[in-house]
Amino acid sequence: MNGFWVNFFFILLSLTAILSALYVVLTNNLVRAAFALFFTLFSVAGLYAILSADFIAVVQVMIYVGGILVLIIFGILLTRTVFDMSLYDKKMSKFWAGVIVVIMALIFLKVIFGTDWLVRSGTTIQPVTARLGNIFLSRYLLPFEVASVLLLVAIVGALFIARREVKKR
User: Fold this and answer.
1) What is the span of the domain harbouring residue 132?
2) Same domain for 69 and 147?
3) Count of CB atoms within 10 A of residue 112's CB?
4) What is the mean pLDDT of the chain?
5) Exposed (0-12), middle (13-18) or buried (19+): which is 21, by Cβ within 10 Å?
6) Distance between terminal CA atoms of the chain?
């Protein structure tokens, strides 16, 4: 793709991510917030794809969009009392939340405009999937295997706990 389309999709995905994230924060309806979170996470995956981080984009879609968000939506839809719950805490003032947001925005703007960003022109970004696979299976093989065994133990433990609770009924 040429520079115009990359910039167009970058701006489109960025606006989609920002606006849907704002909707997640500002809405009172949990179901609508979950669906807006879907658009936020999917837009972030698109941004990763534009930046040639194909592995991270696929992981973003598989884990966050495909797994965690579906879990959140099922949790909301299968819980009957969630619709009676208030999302706002009376102790936290909207004024102080706004002050914190403005302070953080000023800090971010100072960092963005105060940093001398390195700009490269004419270079092609190569996908990182092959390098990442080689690093996982050579340099970080032991932590990768420990994480795999830990996840397997967590799944077996969850099945054991769920099975024991079914027998008690």
Assistant:
1) 3-138
2) no
3) 9
4) 82
5) middle
6) 60
Torsion, CA 56, CA 57, CA 60, CA 62, rounded to 10: -110
Distance of alpha carbon 144 from alpha carbon 118, whole angstroms? 32
Structure tokens at 53: 């981080």
pLDDT at 168: 59
- Tell me the angle at which helices 30-50 and 3-26 cross, rounded to the nearest 10 degrees: 160
Tokens of 169: 């009924």
Tell whether 87 and 165 lie within a shared domain. Answer: no
Residues 118 and 156 in one domain: no
Residue 57: both structure tokens together: 């984009």
pTM, rounded to two decimals: 0.61
96 with 13, same domain? yes
Average the pLDDT over 101-122 and give the result.
Answer: 88
Burial of 71 (0-12, 13-18, 19+ CB in 10 A): exposed
68 shares its domain with 146: no
Domains: count for the chain: 2
Q: Burial letters for 124-155: b for 16+ Cβ neighbours within 10 Å, e otherwise?
A: eeeeeeeeeeeeeeeeeeeeeeeeeeeeeeee
Report the CATH number at residue 24: 1.20.120.1200
| 24 and 39 part of one domain | yes
